[in-house]
Amino acid sequence: KSLSRSSVRSRMSLKPPKAYNSLQKGAPLWDPKPLQVKKIFEALKKGLNEYLEAHQAELDYLSGRHKDTKRNSRLAFYYDLDKQIRSVERYIRKLEFHISKVEELYEAYCIQCRLRDGATNMKHAFSLSPSTKASRESLVELYKNFQECTEDMCFIEGALEVHLGEFHVKMKGLVGFARLCPGDQYEVFVRLGRQKWRLKGKIETDDSQTWDEEEKIFIPNLHEKFEIKVTELRGLATILVGVVTCDSINFFTTKPQAIIVDITELGTIKLQLEVLW
């Protein structure tokens, strides 16, 4: 009748994020999205491994110079290199711990997902069989286990978001060829979940652009996409240019990512951003 399981939170040595402290029995839950979590996990792990490889290559280079310097007895430079090597080694250990924590969270998430799917299948099987006192008791127990698995998956999603880092988004300007004229003013609104960035810009006489803000930090979200809205300001009136959404999965990488999105359906006005993770 019972899946005989204890809460994943009692087995994991992590503190629940503040936003998820309300995940207690009876609290409203959202629907976990395992496929999206899998995509983010794979992109995150790949990006972290890229950082690890880059710093390992830096460590190898510094270690080689360290040996050469030691032979040449340039003590001041030798000690400076030694400090750099120790710093890189500490960062590599932090990255390795970060990767292991992410893997641990995702492994626990997959276990709860399988338990939840099993409870769903068993509920379906019992619902097709003749109703008896034992089957009704089993359905109640299965529903309880389903709710507990859902609660634990939501908790782990919140814990995993803590390890996603930051996106530094830079405004590079609008691209519009003949559509952009000197004196035109635009407002760009970028949203990621509850995070918002509103900035205004103007096309100058030399076709350059000035914006009142150039950079914003966003905290990545497992389920939300970037929503970008551009409006043209004409006196007291505003004219909607376009609204687009942009997935963040490709941003988990060591190199800055240039983003050019079509704001209008025909692509006559584009927005250019740069994202550094």
Automatic annotation (TrEMBL):
Residues 2-277 form the FAM65 N-terminal domain. InterPro entries: FAM65_N, RIPOR3. It holds the Pfam family PL48. Belongs to the RIPOR family. This is RIPR3 protein. It comes from Xiphorhynchus elegans. The lineage of its organism: Eukaryota, Metazoa, Chordata, Craniata, Vertebrata.
